[in-house]
Amino acid sequence: MTHPATPVVPAVPAAAVASPSRRVLLGSAAAVGVAGVAGVAGVAGAGSAAASSVASSVVASDPGDRHISYREWSGRHLGPVRFTGQRDHVDPFDTTATSRSYDVATWVSPVVRPGFGLTELVASWNADTPGRSWVEVSVRGRSAGVATKEYVLGRWCRYDPAQGGGIHRTSVKGQGDTVATVYTDTLATRTGHVLDEWQLVVRLMRPTGTRQTPRLRSVGAMASALPDTERVPRSPNGRARGRVLDVPTFSQETHIGHFPQWDNGGEAWCSPTSTSMVLAYWGAGPRRDETAWVTEAMPDEVDPQVDFAARNVYDYTYDGGGNWPFNAAYAASRPRMRGFVTRLRSLTEAEEFIAAGIPLVTSVSFEKDELDGAGYGTNGHLMVVVGFTPDGDVVCNDPASHLVRDNAQVRVVYDREQFENVWVPHSGGIVYVIHPERHRLPRAPRREPNW
What we know:
Blueprint lengths: L21 H4 L25 H9 L7 E8 L8 E8 L8 E10 L11 E9 L5 E10 L2 E2 L3 E6 L23 E4 L2 E4 L7 E11 L7 E11 L44 H12 L10 H6 L6 H10 L10 H9 L4 E7 L3 H9 L4 E7 L11 E11 L5 E4 L13 E4 L1 H12 L2 E7 L15
Antiparallel strand pairs: 1-11, 2-3, 3-10, 4-9, 4-11, 5-6, 5-7, 5-10, 8-9, 12-17, 13-14, 13-17, 14-15, 15-16
Helix pairs in contact: 3-5, 3-6
């Protein structure tokens, strides 16, 4: 189980910045604290509201001190780009340590000024990487009027080299300086620093002398500045009360011990298991011929799409399947699919997606006594919100399945207020939004749209 929110850490000299384990570092339930920020989250108070009034209030909602914005570019805004540079690169996970030459095309986003000083940023990209091609996504910005360096947020391709891909997809550690650092996939500023603007830089890498050209279909980023609060009030019921989406149930526990080279299944596979459930809901999971390598190794495997996903979201530096953008990018590598990572301010916003027929993968963490019915505690876990009861409680596909190796144990109902408080304060409300390209998203809030 992986990956709750990234804590902001004190500023230290660059030479002293360590690279602690993602699982240890991100295990803090303190989540998204920002020094000097006080007050409670700007979400609506407890109680219920009529569906029609809630729908309009979500769109017009005041973000209060829970600042989140999402910007994305696609289509004509991405090109054309020209291959005008060249770069040598050594894949650190290639046992031959061979330096390979690549033609490089660079796309740079417009400068984004979110209207608040951001403390965290998570990028998302949807790309095609034929043959041995790959992409590198970075961000730069300005803090107190001074330009930052570029921080690499991911080096990605659809397949690993053994499958014919270009590199072992990876985050990049050891990038911290006195302004910011990168915790696997999340840019986080140091205490006392914010970014007033940001800009993405995407490099498309094509093996020199080939026509294996990667194509960027969309790229964007979520920027946020969140309050240091341990609890949020229960959000009002929204438009999805009584609606439950028919998302298939897969248990991560049935995969314990599978493929140690990709983190050994079980609790380490909550993210690929959740992503697989959503892809199966859309009918976009891998075909039988694509998962043949799984069933050849494990003839009794009933959900090979989970093993397939675990391999294809795996971050070789993080050494796990919990990299948020890698899960979204994998989902978007399926035909006619799209995926991105953002933060939501409340379950009222989440209901907008359920009402639109879109399940959400959510990032949570909690002690065993904080979420009734779970039967376990976790310092970081992913599960799918698939609906809401008529009373507004949360219907989830929880791949931990009460720690029982049984897909029938995956569907569970969690108390709304309890769920909201193991999600919003702990990961900042992180979600993967995965849907077909032609399936419309709900209308985003007018102020600080976060999708």
